[in-house]
Amino acid sequence: ADGSSMVVLDISNPTIPVFRGSYSNTSGYGTGGVAVSGSMAYVANGNPDGDPGGIIDVLDISNPTSPTLLGSCEITGEARAIAVSGPYAYVAGYLNGLAGLDISNPAAPVLLGTYDTGGWAYGVAVSGSYAYVADGASGVVVLDVLNPAAPTLRGSYNTAGEAQGVAVLGSYAYVADGATGLVVLDVSNPTIPTLK
């Protein structure tokens, strides 16, 4: 993501990334994040003014030199980051928490539900039926998204810094925690994350 566009790079030789293509969103909103699944890219575009909020673009990237817009969905809140799991996408919507979308029809993504995390949702990762939200000064919020239309709080961990990004692998959540640096949480029991 670069300003209000998504850039496609060929990294077959990681020491020399090569530009292959790009897509500029028509909303003029800043592109905050991108997730790729198969031949689709899901792009989170956020309006920093918060009105009307954010737009999620679904792009066909089967031809990397010419990404093509298939569909869009408006959400409340500034879309900062996006994660995809199966037929669903989850968007960190800054002051508006988490949004869950049905992306089973790429031409017509549908907003299913939201959850106000109480902080500033900067980042999101999904593992199994849980969404882990990097929620700024509130730390990490763990939501059960088995029903994406009605996410429910399952746990949280208030990090020492400001959680701005999160990735989950196995039983661990890796949190970009602002000035604190990297924080590793044990999430083997998602209802009670613990510092590792």
Commentary on this structure:
It is built from no helices and 18 strands. It is an all-beta fold and 196 residues long.
Question: Topology of this structure?
Answer:
Layout: E1 5-10, E2 18-24, E3 30-37, E4 40-46, E5 54-60, E6 68-75, E7 81-85, E8 88-92, E9 98-102, E10 110-115, E11 123-127, E12 130-134, E13 140-144, E14 152-157, E15 165-169, E16 172-176, E17 182-186, E18 194-195
Antiparallel strand pairs: 1-2, 3-4, 4-5, 5-6, 7-8, 8-9, 9-10, 11-12, 12-13, 13-14, 15-16, 16-17, 17-18
Give unreliable regions as ranges.
Answer: none
Shape: globular
Structural class call reads mainly beta
Gap between N and C termini: 31 Å
Spell the H/E element sequence.
EEEEEEEEEEEEEEEEEE
Q: What can be said about the biggest beta sheet?
A: 4 strands, antiparallel
Number of contiguous helices:
0
What is the helix fraction of residues, given as a range?
Answer: under 10%
Integer average pLDDT:
94
Q: Trace the largest sheet across and list its strands.
A: 3-4-5-6
- Range of strand content: over 45%
Please tell me how large the radius of gyration is.
Answer: 16 Å
Tally of strands: 18
Comma- or semicolon-separated keywords:
196 residues; 0% helix; four-stranded antiparallel β-sheet; mainly beta
Short recap of the structure:
The protein has about 200 residues and is an all-beta fold. It has strands spanning about 5-10, 20-25, 30-35, 40-45, 55-60, 70-75, 80-85, 90, 100, 110-115, 125, 130-135, 140-145, 150-155, 165-170, 170-175, 180-185, 195.
